[in-house]
Amino acid sequence: MLPQSKMVDQKIMNNTFNLIWNTWSWKDTWGWDFPMTAMTATRLGLPEKAIDALLMDIQTNTYLVNGHNYQDDRLRLYLPGNGGLLTAVAMMCAGYDGSKKINPGIPKNGKWNVRGEGLKKMP
């Protein structure tokens, strides 16, 4: 999810993303892992995976009716999950420095009609 730099090899990052996506124990994650995955997918040009990460049916990716990111009975409020979700959606819509596409984190499959307002690109 970090900005592109000379230290990031795009092919290695894609391979790492795919390995994590396919082998990570998602049920053992925290609420902020889903937005972090969505932001990484967005930077890698994988908008379908970005959406899939945010909609993954895992307990720690649950938001209560009051908006709080639920982790478990002892931790019914997890603000890093909330902040991560807001940041991920903003990045998926506004993009990041160097991105040229409108809504780079939103699939272009005709199923999504998304418009952001007043959002700034992430570095």
Walkthrough of the structure:
This protein is mainly alpha-helical and 123 residues long. It has one domain (29-123). Helix content is 40%, strand content 3%. The chain contains four helices and two strands; from the N terminus they run αααββα. The protein has helices at 10-23, 33-43, 47-54, 79-94, and strands at residues 62-63, 69-70. It has a two-stranded antiparallel ribbon. Helix 2 (33-43) runs antiparallel to helix 3 (47-54) and helix 2 (33-43) packs parallel to helix 4. The longest helix is centred in the last third of the chain and has 16 residues, at 79-94. The protein is globular, with a radius of gyration of 15 Å. The N and C termini lie close together (10 Å).
- What is the H/E order? HHHEEH
Given as residue ranges, the uncertain stretches (5+ residues, pLDDT < 50) are none
Q: What characteristic shape results from the CA principal axes?
A: globular
Strand content: under 5%
Mean pLDDT score: 95
The biggest sheet, with number of strands, parallel, antiparallel or mixed sense and barrel status, is: 2 strands, antiparallel
Helix content: 25-40%
Number of strand segments = 2
Q: How does the helix and strand content classify structurally?
A: mainly alpha
Terminal-residue CA separation: 10 Å
Please give the count of helices: 4
Radius of gyration: 15 Å
Biggest sheet: strand arrangement: 1-2
- The overall number of domains is 1
Based on the model shown, name its key terms.
123 residues, mainly alpha, two-stranded antiparallel sheet, 2 strands, 3% strand
Outline the fold blueprint:
Layout: H1 10-23, H2 33-43, H3 47-54, E1 62-63, E2 69-70, H4 79-94
Antiparallel strand pairs: 1-2
Helix pairs in contact: 2-3, 2-4
